[in-house]
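TOKENISED FOLD:
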Amino acid sequence: MGMINYLENNQADVIGYIDSEIVLSHQVHGEDFMTFILKVPRLSNTFDYINTTVSHRILTDAMNLGDKIAVKGQFRSYNNYSDVGNKLILTLFVHEIEKVPDSTKIHSEISLNGYICKEPVYRKTPFGREIADVLLAVNRAYNKSDYIPCIAWGRNARFCEKLAIGQNIKITGRVQSREYQKKISDLKSITKTAYEVSVSRIEIVENADSPAKKDEEIEEIDKTDLE
């Protein structure tokens, strides 16, 4: 049996603008990893603000605040062991990056192949719009997984409602950021940002090469860890 290509499980392709200074995030084995915010316009004239991580060694061009760039990589999750911020950190991990002309068309697409690791939550908004929250475990090399929150709408939401834990699916969509109010007391709420994949297409993977993870093999993550 050939080696599994884990890069194909999680592929993001985004064109947007550098919206913050590029600063040091952390080091691994002497290699510097930098972080910045990628601003991606939507058709609705709003914006997604995506946490982005890139190795310093592939920042070959002088990139600055406001530059338009094309990024290819993966949407990854990491545990946050500090007491500050969200318990699960979601970031666009860059494999390729380059500056592009300002005339280049904005683009944002991600494809994921993973497993349902928590029962999907189907609901309707006060205006009757159908929504389903899905938590997808996407396998990565070295026996790791990324836990990616996804949100589906309308017909896709109804489809997701019937999915079972451990089921293998493919999703296509875009990475989005969304602000919301979290109530911390009867008198006080704070503004927080959720990061997720907005689903445009979804399909069940039949006769997958690798078996779906069993329930007991999937790490349970509380939905509040993603907020």
